[in-house]
Amino acid sequence: MELEATVYGLLIAFPLLGALTRRWLTVALPAIGWPIYYEGLNNGWWLYGTGDGWQTIRTSLTILGIASTALAVLVARRFKPPTRGRRFSGFSAKPS
Exposed, middle or buried: residue 34 (CB in 10 Å: 0-12, 13-18, 19+)? Predict the structure, then answer.
């Protein structure tokens, strides 16, 4: 049950972050996150480890994560383009 919750959580989290940030850089998150997640499972760092065929599942989830995050970024950018970062310059008072 815990394993399913973490997989579903990551499947939702990566595209959600992509949609919220509207930055193409977030497409790299699943490319990094899924291999780290499965490496930790395989080495017993968390949860119960992996079973047969875990490499195929890791690759499939990585591809699915990249595709869904890219789609979320694309849709979010269609509705509202990303804004350029603005620096806060404090209160701007005109000289008298």
Answer: buried
